[in-house]
Amino acid sequence: MKVxxxxxxxxxxxxxxxxxxxxxxxxxxxxxxEAFSSLPYSAxxxxxxxxxxxxxxxxxxxxxxxxxxxxxAQAALKVVRRAGLRPSAVHVIGSxxxxxxxxxxxxxxxxxxxxxxxLQIGEPALIAEKTGILTVADFRPRDMAAGGQGAPLTPYAxxxxxxxxSHSRLVVNLGGIGNVTYLPAKxxxxxxxxxxxxxxxxxxxxxxxxxxxxxxxxxxxxxLAAKGKVDSRLLTRxxxxxxxxxxxxxxxxxEEFGDSFVSKVLALGRRFRLSAEDILxxxxxxxxxxxxxxxxxxxxxxxQVIVGGGGVMNATLMSNLxxxxxxxxxxxxxxxxxxxxxxxxxxxxxLAYQTIHGEYGNVPSATGAKRxxxxxxxxxxxxxxxxxxx
Length: 390
Prior knowledge:
By secondary structure, the protein is of the alpha/beta class. 38% of the residues lie in helices and 24% in strands. It is globular.
């Protein structure tokens, strides 16, 4: 099947779209990369999304849901064109959507019991209608319904594409939030460990935006951080964040490492009279430290570290990671034949393929769900669903 995967992460900078060819069944799949493209959000839209994530009205979220659904459809059609195909040649789209709020910690409600919640917008009905392609979306809520945290969901794809019989691998994703997947040598899906580690690019991006008064939204290449020095006082304070000391399964997002956390980092930086470069250098090292420290939760040794996500482009952060993991080799998804920036979109293409074939896609050992479940909601395109599977 030709499958499109769509992803917009917590950095909220645009829609990544990938087209892959998937063959096989159950957990024995062959996945071939065919095309990738990205549809960036405007600065104004990114600001709208970030505001909606913490203080948006119902009307704001309602409007953004439809607006982003249209943009996700455009992103899907763009990558189909890049692959030299017509939409009718594509069998299914898997859309993660845009997370605006994620509350994985259960709240007890009288007469109901424990409730977890998450919300991804980018209306899938619009994607299915505007592309004519069967669309699978809303992957996270079903895992939550089964008692999980709805995240992380990429470990299933990490296992399918990266597990190795000879080496135990730690797969690191540097998106807005950092997360790791531990793949023991000769392991099975049940032996996977995976969880969020804390901030990836989110805090660094937020700091740059504040420190440059909105002129920049990222430390491109980590050049600013490379000019600074790590401050032990600030680092010690940051490492006390309670999320870092929670036992997995665990997931997090902008609710814990968004604007309020960035404001605390800036306030501490001012108290310690640090330069902008020193604040960024310390925060970069902090990110590497939280990822390296994930090893205390693992049930085995790590032989190789494989890093993907947008953070791979940050040379300072990658250098920090390599230093923290010495003597374990640190490499990138590219060395295994997968574009770092595209991989999360690939993961949701794989999950969509599994969903329409009735196969589970969550990893209970990673999310905390009571059992494996088939993920997502399915919206038929312009042709009957039976015709897609024929």
